[in-house]
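WARN retry 2 of 3 for item q-0093 after timeout on previous attempt; input resubmitted unchanged.
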Amino acid sequence: MTTTEIEITAELVRDLLRDQHPDLADRPVKLGARGWDNQLWRLGDDLAVRLPWATQTADVLLRKEHAWLPALAPHLPLPVPVPQRLGEPSERFPRPWIVTTWVPGSPADQAPATRAAEAADALAAFLTALH
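OK item q-0093 returned
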């Protein structure tokens, strides 16, 4: 993984919200996860803020998700984070970022595989619907 030149903190997330989506800026903010491309910050109980941080390809993918997921999500058999707002690059953060719905649950790589056949069927149905 590459490193980012900008440290992403709860204060930065709040400042970005205050600048571009002030109606969301007073919600609680806490780190949810750091992934390969993005950092995910919880925003209250029902939203999340995703900021690209490690790879340059994340910017393009984030904009594609913002364009396509609202139309695709109602047709998918599993819940997906649905984009609600797009944050544009600024002096504070030079990359686009996104506010999505929060999907509760545990990451699949951290949950025990207790019903493998059911999980495989759910994944197959999701990929079929996505295709």
